[in-house]
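Protein in question kept in full:
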Amino acid sequence: ERYVQWRAILQSKTGDATPILRRVVLKAGLRVVPAAGEAKARVVAGTPAQRAVSSYSFAYQEPTERLARLREQYDLEKVIAGGDSELEKLVALRNWCRYTAPKGWDSGRTQWCPPWDALVILETNKEPLALCMCTHYSTLFVQTAAALGYVARHVILDHHCVAEVWCNQLRKWVLMDTGNAHEPELNCHFEHNGVPLNALEIRRLWQAKRTGEIEVVYAQRPRRCADDPEAQKHCAFPSYRRFAIPLRNNHLDTPFPGELTQGHGQYFCDAYLWWEDDPVPGESPEYGMVSNRVEDFYWSVNETTIKLAASGVPGAVSVTLETMTPNFEKFEVRIDGKGWQSKRQSFRWKLKPGRNVLEARSVNSFGVAGPVSRQEVELNK
């Protein structure tokens, strides 16, 4: 089975002319005839392709001197060293970010609201010298995660700010609520049936009046049901009536486009994408960018797609690897359970009689490996 996808991007150099697509022609001809007596290969199992793509572009944080300083000056590798799984490492990072300013929501001597800049926030949040609230705790998490090679972004709720991070271990986006209360130990994430949730999943459970099914997972406290009276005080599920994401996480490089005092008052910046349940905006009509397409908010990151094709060489198939990995460094491949080795995007896979297993993953410039994709091929004489 084969399929074709295509996209047309229409542009105009003048404001009074609308580009028009008048015709699309697609021609293809393919016929594969195996030679007499040639061994036949067939795919018997594989990882489903995870290629959700947003309609919007996203500006990812690149490795910079400031990002390296954040990682080294605060010894972030040590912060997550105790985590056995990737999720545990991210929870440890979230907990550390919250405890950098035990006394939150205090503007200190300067009475100043810092921008979304972790290096500035970490210099001013101890005494404190300046404000550190939910927006800034989320900023710390997003940018320290980026410094460690993970993809995270802010999520703006109704009068609250949290973060989401792509977890390679779970192959999904996970919400982290770093600054939800004056008590630092209340930083948390949420799970449903043991699976960490994102903002849209939380919103839908709240809309369905099913928050009693949600578990609040703390870094240093026992789990609680989200409907527990003590948990309700900081879960703030009504805040999920609407949410938005900035279309970038490179705020360590530049504060613009954005607001220098974001969160200190109402949100005036119109550079965020807001979720709407329906095509006609109901929750956030005052903003210019809205969408009810899930993939616009929850696209796939770091996934590797393995494409197989006939090679023309008996007993071998052609392999092409594809990925959307920010700060991509290389592909790694493992054949039949042997060690990982670097591979080019396209190569020939020599098969042996019987079962053959190919695993592939992307690795970014921080050394973080993405989820493992797998294809199993059987070669019969």
Remarks:
- The chain has a mean pLDDT of 92.
- The longest strand covers residues 354-364.
